[in-house]
């Protein structure tokens, strides 16, 4: 069981059930196992909490709404689409037509997902044989294949070779596994556009016959079906004009009026047009119309399975990495053997800017250029809400018991039923002093309740002024402050080094801050870890994953006074009054302290 | 790659407000009048969404597929798995020394459950969690595969029609509140499958994860649905049984009480990779039965020489990593067909020993065919669509098909069975119906109405009655009069799949019966849905006809959840 470093997770207020969707939804609140009251304790072990907890670094902050914004509650806009492999930008229009994958020559190995390179299939002739100058040019020509430099997979294994070293994506889409060519969508469309294709019945039948023994691939069947349905939908309307169907959408048009009438008169008023239209689609009868009879004979595949064994089959994860292959024989002919895996074109990625969903202000905007990782705007929550650092505190290291001494080492296991102390350091990132109120349940929720005592649940943290501001400001006041601080510093060092000999300061006092700095405050939390022993007869005999983690839910409420950034109207009034605005921010967070020994 | 989107000039509705596009549909129908403006109550409030593409989302128990309407296949597929349920920023999965502690999860009754989005038994389901899972999976699918921003988009969901309302409601809640989509239309997957196969009626055999559902679709309506718990989950559990049986005896895990010795992930993987299904034993089917049967059997004969020998001796090595110590297991190849046999057929037991909820698949299919009215049955049996994850088990589809055709051959369409009936048949004095026994077998449906009367007590009167002139029938007749429909023979057909079917439906601008408005949902929830019969009896009947479009304008007043019912 790996030890962990203490961590903090913050629950974005957006996942409060009260703000989520309909408040009348009794189901979700009941599922939470808690009421919507204020005193509801947040349970970090509830399966739902995994969806609402974020490390501080993942959170953004809207300056105008004064609210935390998590990845779930931001509105995203796409800045650029690019390929993560070649870092080329892809215009959004391409995306619609070409799909979500890189259409250049960027491919991933289907076995090990490493990048594939285009190489010539021709093996280099033995250099000892001939030293003629044209030898060097020879490998450049000839068929090409995609090869993986990591696992040596080559597309020749699935029988795919390319004529040209560029435009691999286009070439690949025309090739089935094994190297047989297939009609591309474009060619098929051209064939469909061919006037003889639909006008004369003779050619239609001829086409159908030629196609009947051929198995439709996914894309062809879809295209056939689509054109079939479209012709069916258009047929009955041919007599009375193009989009008559669209014209009687509302009740304002006469046709639909008559239809309404017919509801009451039992269909006698139905005019011919309506009769023609309703239920006019017949079903597809031919391969050409998209009907594909299933071939249930899979004995060949079974034989292959038998001969190739487990190693010959592709694992589910590899299969799920495969791009949808429109050219494959059919849904049920989906590849399952390693020998059928195709190179994976890289999925495109996006750069996204993020907006506050409420006030529509941009809270994060990356640089549009693909190569840069900088952001133009990025309002991270870390510079608006206090961060919490957790450190084990060895109070009684002087007393010399080895067991409690282990608690002082970061990442060590916590002893059950043995009080341990942790130092929480709150750092204030904003330029106003803030008042922090903490609330934590006396016992952690879950099957194993550890006792938690926050020794100082209410305190104030000074503003995050510039380090030099203090020194440069009023020399007398600041100096005094610095003196005090220096003295505290000295005391702290003494306390740590001297152990409990001079423990006038080291005494844990309820309601007292442990330490204070320029813009930070440390307080002590005492925990008594639970005894992780399951009674016999309980339904579950084992600890669940992470159940030995000591996690404290803590409600943090931050209050501060800020200059009123009044709206345009209020600003005039507010400015001369020097109005201060009281703000508050409240959220649940989870402090992971460590694992309990079991 | 996806040229169909290029040839799809009509993004759902609003575009007609703006310009008149050269729609492919009326292009073909020769000269046509210019398009009139559509009444304003039909247009969406903002024409900015003109180029909006509708998202098609197929939600299953184990995976979620997303894509745009008009595409032949989904662009992305997200599987539900425990890794997905971790906190954001929890990267332990990437640590080299980390392995998912499946044993403790299994001990908590989670073996495989954390790979599921929902359970149909809603008593124990944390509905909020279902919403969270859908939301996260959709978010991942949108950013990773669809590459779309978070502008509100209309969605079409393809759902199993048996989805309980609480689950559906939780899913809708979460998506409406997070993704702000203005409307969500619901399509039932059997229907979408039928559309994706190009037929109006079908027998959809969905070999799904939690259960196998046999749905009869007749003229784009689900008329009957039967289910059995023999599904993918059962198959994986039987595979586990097989592996556990063959692993050395170790008294389970450390404390000896573990029900599971191999992780679900591994079992599931082995199941999808290695498990296959034996063809129907030949001894039982002495004579070649029907034409449809011939395909499989002929093939068998061709390979009879070499295969049985190699099958007996052949063995397969299956590596197992999640056991106490990584090992590899040598299994005879035949053994890998056992799980399939046990999970789906269990032919060693008599048919009477099964409860209604655990019927073997061939019986399930046969019974659901048997229960259908004759005309519906005739159409459905020649349009059998296999779908669902387990239909990828090699040989399973063929086996079910063979078993069913054998059953039909054996029993005909006689719901009454038993010794009494047999005696009746055997006794020449009492035998009145030997004519039927003679040879028509599965094609019994095709028999003239006079005979149908004898076969089937229920339909007794139908033959003598003068048929009413039915408006709908007339139309169906008219629609099909040109070419005869295939009916009465067993015939399997391939469907593009429910997702692609829904993509077609949406692309062709046929609106779903159940279209839910965001505002309406947020106000009333599932309680606001009216019964499908109240809401739009008319439009439901016209399902795929162009008249279905009317539904959109009526959506404001009364809306329905369609087959998903009303509270």
TrEMBL record, chain A:
Region entry Disordered: which residue ranges? 17-46, 179-214, 307-326, 471-505
One Pfam family this sequence matches: Dynactin_p62
GO cellular component, alphabetical, reads: dynactin complex; stress fiber
Instruction: State where composition is biased (Basic and acidic residues).
Output: 184-196
- The highest taxon in the source lineage is Eukaryota
| Listed Polar residues bias regions | 17-29, 313-323
Question: Which of UniProt's keywords are assigned here?
Answer: Acetylation, Coiled coil, Cytoplasm, Cytoskeleton, Isopeptide bond, Phosphoprotein, Ubl conjugation
Q: Where in the cell is it found?
A: Cytoplasm, Cytoskeleton, Microtubule organizing center, Centrosome; Cytoplasm, Cytoskeleton, Stress fiber; Cytoplasm, Myofibril
Q: Which InterPro entries match?
A: DCTN4 (IPR008603)
Q: Does the keyword Electron transport apply?
A: no
| Record's signal peptide | none
Show the PANTHER family listed in the entry: DYNACTIN P62 SUBUNIT, DYNACTIN SUBUNIT 4
Record-stated family: Belongs to the dynactin subunit 4 family.
Subunit structure, as described in the record: Subunit of dynactin, a multiprotein complex part of a tripartite complex with dynein and a adapter, such as BICDL1, BICD2 or HOOK3. The dynactin complex is built around ACTR1A/ACTB filament and consists of an actin-related filament composed of a shoulder domain, a pointed end and a barbed end. Its length is defined by its flexible shoulder domain. The soulder is composed of 2 DCTN1 subunits, 4 DCTN2 and 2 DCTN3. The 4 DCNT2 (via N-terminus) bind the ACTR1A filament and act as molecular rulers to determine the length. The pointed end is important for binding dynein-dynactin cargo adapters.
Under what name is this protein listed? Dynactin subunit 4
Q: Which organism is it from?
A: Parathielavia appendiculata
TrEMBL record, chain B:
Region of interest (Disordered), residue spans: 1-46, 279-311, 428-456, 525-554
Which InterPro entries does this UniProt record tie to the protein?
Actin (IPR004000), ATPase_NBD (IPR043129)
Looking up PANTHER family in the UniProt record yields:
ACTIN
Q: What protein family does this chain belong to?
A: Belongs to the actin family.
Write down what this protein is called: Actin-like ATPase domain-containing protein
Q: Which organism is it from?
A: Parathielavia appendiculata
